[in-house]
Amino acid sequence: MSKRWFSGMIAILMTVGIMGFSSEAKAEMPADVKLTAEQLEEMKSLQQDALNQKKEIINKYVEYGVFSKEKGQKIITHLEERYLRLEQNGFVPIFHDDYRKHRSKES
Q1: Tens digit of each residue's pLDDT (9 = 90 or more) over 60-99
Q2: How far apart are CA 44 and CA 55, in angstroms?
Q3: Predicted confidence (pLDDT) per residue in 10-63, tens digit
Q4: Which residues contact 102 (CB under 8 A, 6 or more apart)?
Q5: Residue (of 17, 82, 10) closest to 50 by Cα position
Q6: pLDDT reported for residue 93
Q7: Max Cα separation, the chain?
Q8: Does residue 101 contact residue 95 with C-beta atoms inside 8 Å?
């Protein structure tokens, strides 16, 4: 009986602990952030460098036969579309509270 009680208490404490951490993470996110022109240029440069490096990695995978040319091109297209969305948002990533809601809006 005491083992079941102890296991139940541990499960409850873990659930409450996880829920507490997730609500704190949401509270720390700023609502509206605007970058200065200098910050935008720096983020643009860093994001372009990252995009180019990822493209090089994908191309190497294609060269080594890990990905087909079609798969590699599809991944690169996705990365470029993501970069364009990021650029449209002023290089500030958008975090969604509920991933499923976000995915259902795109469909």
Answers
A1: 999 999 999 999 999 999 999 999 999 999 998 887 666 5
A2: 16
A3: 777 667 666 555 555 555 656 678 899 999 999 999 999 999 999 999 999 999
A4: 96
A5: 82
A6: 85
A7: 65
A8: no
DSSP state of 30: -
Please check whether residue 28 is in contact with residue 99, taking contact to mean a CB–CB distance below 8 angstroms.
no
CA–CA distances in Å: residue 78 to residues 30, 82, 85, 98 = 27, 6, 11, 21
Give φ, ψ of 93 to 5 degrees: -65, 145
- In sign, the C-alpha dihedral spanning 82, 84, 85, 89 is positive
Q: What is the pTM of this model?
A: 0.62
End-to-end Cα spacing for the chain: 50
For residue 74, the one-letter residue type is K
* Predicted pLDDT of residue 58: 97
Q: Where are the alpha helices (DSSP H) in the chain?
A: 2-27, 37-63, 69-88, 99-106
